[in-house]
Amino acid sequence: MATYVIGDLHGCFDQLQQLLDLINFDPNHDHLWFTGDLINGGPKPVEVLRFIKSLGERQICVLGNHDLTLLSIGIGKNIVTNDRTNGFEPVLNAPDRDELLAWLQSRPLVHFDQNLKILLVHAGVLPQWSLSEILSYAKEVETVLRTETMHDFYLNMFGNMPDTWDDNLSGWPRIRFFVNCFTRMRFCNTVGKLDLFSKGTVNDAPPGFAPWFTLPNIRDNDLKIIFGHWSALLGKTGVHNMVALDTGCVWGNYLTALCLNDMQRYLLANY
User: Fold this and answer.
1) How far apart are CA 181 and CA 227, in angstroms?
2) pLDDT tens digit string along 187-232?
3) Based on the structure, what is the number of domains in the chain?
4) What is the span of the domain harbouring residue 164?
5) Which of 26, 120, 171, 197 is in the most buried spot, having the most CB atoms within 10 Å?
6) pLDDT tens digits for 110-130?
7) Phi first, then psi: what are they for 255, rounded to 5°?
8) How buried is 113 (Cβ within 10 angstroms: 0-12 exposed, 13-18 middle, 19+ buried)?
9) What CATH number is associated with residue 24?
10) How far apart are the first and last CA of the chain?
């Protein structure tokens, strides 16, 4: 039995199947983890959702920012208009859309494996937070997402403020900050301020900021964090316990799988 973690799919179903052939995936014994952003960009988002959902307990998938945007449109009835949302339409028009959206909404923000000491998250975590805080804050969002308050959540989810962590944050600003950390962040500073605008490589950090995974506290413990979201990294962090798996398949680069049994990487080129 093997467990593989696969980077952001963005609707690249055919490439996923090719990668599973490459690793000799056995659906009866192996497990798959996914870093989120299952949809939007590639041509087959419905097939991606149906396949991963069909894996049942043999899959773990955390929510990404594109997944949440889809949910805000499909369940929250928000109107989101930009040139990168066309990839949602196949899901929204699918005959089983309600079932797919309900399944997606029930995915976690983070997943922690106690035995492996591995944390799975889409974008990142604030370096100032302890593991217990990370899990607690993710649970706050998940609770809101799965109760009658979910429609208010979708109305209040978007935005870049507040951009600095404060223990006294409350209400929707608090929830929004958590969402931005778990699903959108790349750069932050030592006092817990996020930069949500810069999207380049690690060398493109704004003055006073750094990639979240390079800052003290988070990088100096024995916790291994696996994340996606940041395709410009091309899978390289330079930090031994920080593992980036979004290698830009949807942009014509690679789809990556990491075997947790031996930490071997498998790359499928999407040229």
Assistant:
1) 12
2) 999 999 999 999 999 999 999 999 999 998 765 567 999 999 999 9
3) 1
4) 3-269
5) 120
6) 999 999 999 999 999 999 999
7) -110, 130
8) middle
9) 3.60.21.10
10) 31
